[in-house]
């Protein structure tokens, strides 16, 4: 049985357990709110966390003016793109790297011109990359020592775990795999919080100078408070540095927030940049649908997360690939079903849609009427395979069979999954040779 995990960006935490590294297959989508670095820095600043001085710019000339305000000397230009590996990324403008050191304000203008309005491709974005609409221009800090520091919510420990390493680097995941002893993992009692003793232990073991131990400890405790107050699931500082002038600075931040906490973190969630996320996810969020896009060819509309997971597993068992996770819940209102169909049919990769609903809270015949009406109203051209089981399923079958919009009704779960995989394969073959195809029951 396949295991599916959902959210928007993977930080270091999913790759580490407290015993040995655990690696997640590429392509699995993990969903949570992720904010741009400049917003994360503003949020950390409110908690007294020390970050580099700087401002965000939406144009090259604005970036140049910020560099002048910072003193006109060396500065750092950072592409504001929600993806890891920016430093090793490639812009479609030809510029290599999304984090660059500029020697002058004129240099800042040149670099910003090659970032803003272009797409950055990294190992986490896919070949299409993500758009860069802003850059963060900040002071260049003279680093004496640099470290890796993160706090993540670890399911195994039912609370926060601090992950730290003296081996800071852009390939921290590889370091964790090749040199697991270089990674410190310290669970924190969520009821007691991060103690002074534990914070000092981590600062000493990382290798901060004695004169900076207290400052590093103070920064760790402030970061921990931020994590708890804001329902953060993972907070990554890379690098966490000691400077030549004796400061402790959080140079780069990646923060993920728990989507389930949106109701009490409304101000934070308003800062979400939908341009950085899958357009299907954005449309689903606006419609209030529990949806996560995948990369397959079979659209899934199911009620209940458990049945949705089983549906995707069954599709994989028969050689198909699900295009999404979509749970319409127990109500299955006309609007939810219509919006769901619109999202699924709007995905160019979808060749067939599998509706798999169990009638428990709501009767199958009521769901069938909603499905038939939505499919007809939208004039869906994508083939539909429908399985309705539970309360009044026989009435539901007659509604589906009598609908003006042709749908394939299959009662058995295994056969329904097999059918939709076959239908998707035929539809793909027809599309490849530019031939139309129509499906109907015998």
How many beta strands in the DSSP annotation? 20
How many helices?
Answer: 13
Q: Quickly give the structural class.
A: alpha+beta
* Residues in helix, %: 25-40%
Which overall shape is indicated by the principal axes computed on the Cα atoms?
elongated
Work out the radius of gyration: 25 Å
| Main beta-sheet annotation | 7 strands, antiparallel
Strand proportion: 15-25%
Compact overview of the structure:
With 442 residues, the chain is an alpha+beta fold. It is built from 13 helices and 20 strands.
Model description:
The protein is built from 13 helices and 20 strands. It has 442 residues and is α+β, with helices and mostly antiparallel strands. Strands 1, 9, 10, 11, 12, 13 and 14 form a seven-stranded antiparallel sheet that branches. The chain has a four-stranded antiparallel sheet with strand order 2-8-3-5, covered by helices on one side. Residues 1-30 have low confidence and may be disordered. The radius of gyration is 25 Å and the shape is elongated. The two termini are 32 Å apart. Helix content is 34%, strand content 23%.
């Amino acid at each position: 049985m396949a295991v599916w995990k959902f959210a928007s960006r993977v930080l270091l935490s999913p790759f580490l357990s407290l015993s040995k590294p655990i690696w997640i297959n590429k392509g699995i989508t993990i969903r949570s709110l992720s904010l741009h670095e400049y917003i994360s820095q503003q949020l950390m600043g409110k908690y007294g966390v020390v970050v580099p001085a700087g401002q965000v710019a939406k144009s090259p000339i604005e970036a140049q003016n910020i560099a002048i305000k910072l003193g006109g000397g060396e500065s750092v230009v950072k592409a504001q793109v929600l993806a890891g590996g920016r430093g090793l990324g490639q812009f479609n403008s030809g510029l290599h790297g999304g984090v660059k050191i500029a020697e002058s304000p004129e240099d800042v203008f040149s670099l910003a011109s090659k970032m803003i309005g272009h797409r950055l491709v990294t190992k986490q974005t896919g070949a299409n990359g993500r758009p860069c609409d802003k850059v963060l221009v900040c002071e260049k800090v003279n680093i004496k020592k640099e470290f890796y520091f993160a706090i993540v919510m670890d399911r195994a420990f039912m609370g926060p775990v601090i992950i730290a390493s003296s081996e800071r680097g852009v390939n921290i995941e590889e370091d964790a795999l090749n040199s697991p002893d270089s990674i410190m993992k310290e669970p924190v009692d969520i009821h007691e919080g991060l103690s002074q003793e534990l914070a000092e232990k981590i600062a000493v073991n990382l290798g901060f100078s004695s004169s900076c131990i207290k400052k590093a400890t103070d920064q760790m405790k402030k970061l921990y408070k931020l994590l708890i107050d804001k329902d953060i699931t993972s907070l990554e500082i890379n690098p966490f540095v000691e400077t030549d002038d004796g400061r402790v600075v959080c140079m780069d931040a990646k923060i993920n927030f728990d989507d389930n906490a949106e109701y009490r973190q409304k101000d934070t969630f308003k800062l979400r940049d939908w341009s950085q996320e899958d357009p299907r996810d954005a449309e689903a969020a606006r419609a209030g649908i529990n949806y996560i896009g995948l990369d397959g060819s079979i659209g899934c509309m199911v009620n209940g997360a458990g049945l949705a997971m089983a549906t995707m597993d069954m599709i994989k068992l028969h050689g198909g690939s699900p295009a999404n996770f979509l749970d319409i819940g127990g109500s299955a209102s006309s609007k939810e079903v219509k919006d769901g169909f619109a999202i699924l049919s709007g995905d160019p990769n979808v060749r067939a849609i599998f509706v798999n609903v169990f009638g428990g809270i709501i009767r199958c015949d009521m769901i069938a009427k909603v499905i038939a009406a939505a499919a007809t109203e939208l004039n869906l051209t994508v083939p539909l395979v429908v399985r309705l089981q539970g309360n009044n399923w026989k009435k539901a079958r007659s509604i589906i069979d009598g609908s003006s919009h042709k749908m394939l009704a299959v009662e058995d779960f295994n056969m329904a999954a097999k059918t939709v995989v076959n239908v998707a394969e035929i539809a793909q073959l027809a599309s490849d040779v530019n031939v139309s195809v129509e499906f109907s029951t015998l």
